[in-house]
Amino acid sequence: MLLALMVALAALVVWLSSPRSIEESDPSPRSVAEGVRSEPLPDPLVAAASEQAVPDPSPVASGPAIEKVEVCGVGWVDADADGAVDTEAIMASAPMVEAAARLLESIRGDDDFGAATALVLQPRSPGEGSLPLFSITATCAAGPCDATNQDRAAAASLVDRIVKLASATTDPRAYSLALEICAWQIGEGPCTGLTAAQWARLDPDNGAPWLHILDRAFIRHDESAIDDALFHIGAASRLDGHFLAESRLFAQHAGAAPSDLLVAGELSTRAAVMRPMGVSGGISAADKSCSYGALSDPNRKELCEKVATAFQDRSSSLMTMGIGSAIGRRLGWADERFETADAIMAARSDSYPLVSKPIDESRPAASLRQPLDCASIRRVLSYVDNVATRGERERTRLWIERSGKAEHYVRLGREQHARIVAREAAEAAQRASAPAR
Known about the structure:
Helices cover about 55% and strands about 5% of the residues. By secondary structure, the chain is an all-alpha fold. The chain has one domain. α8 runs antiparallel to α9, α9 runs antiparallel to α10 and α14 packs parallel to α16. The two termini are about 45 Å apart.
């Protein structure tokens, strides 16, 4: 599933620890986006595009059976013992590099947000493979790592440029993406000029910036700032962390050719982890700020009531909705308040467009892998576009309506809710009976 791929790729998402400072002689912030759109293709694209194209592999006619996987735009290729395909090698071939160049060129001309997305996903130095600059290993953020000096300098330059773009933009998607990138930076540098408060000013109806503010307040143990952030979250008309917003650009700009489709699918998956932190820290802080103990304060209880309602009813994220339900149970909400949210959670797996399946059911050794054929990639890109447009919660709710099995998922949701309530009651009883320390 796409989410599993996101988790696997999340280990690639990192940033260097020593960004360069912004010099006074650098281009003005407003010119950065235009520069990203107009500059020539990065060297690795030009270099790889001039290489000999790799012939499409095809199944062997005789000899030992070799597991083959159909890859859109390539054909049937060998898979390893686990059924995995070396997609990085495929992406580094000349036809795919050319397709990636066309796609990034199209995206970077799509306003500040497109320019920022293309900038972050630009390829690394020649000979370093197809992975973008932001895929330098996580250890680089904390100290020594295997990254080359060239990669370090390029990634530091990337941070400078994305910060300049964000400083001039009025697009909250571009600004919040820059904040995410800066979450990996350590110490002083250009990132210190970006704040979640500015994101909130750019997007005043969105409670997601206040989740970032809440996270920082919770770390500082600043109760007054925590209450203020909870108030703004509860009052927000929507909670949108721009989940899959970058991936959606690749779905929207994907070409019709099979190679274009494969590249769009791969880059869309890589873009899905460009926001490694997201609002998860703020969601966790909200959960802890609305614990059983905190709810004994009448003022905090009132704030948490509004936060739980916003999480459950106005969030785009299923994770956020789930935390809203958890807080609601602590508040003693009636069972009917959970029905819609519980049904959505019960249907989340079924609503995904692809189910991993054996590559070849006639071979017991064939493992479960997500298909890479063109039709499957189209379905995933359509899913990405839908989720980024509507949000996970609304997209799943509409899927339930169209499925004709609303009663089925309501029943499953009730059963799941009952199990959670029983487990939480048992845990509470165990805590109450534990000897005092």
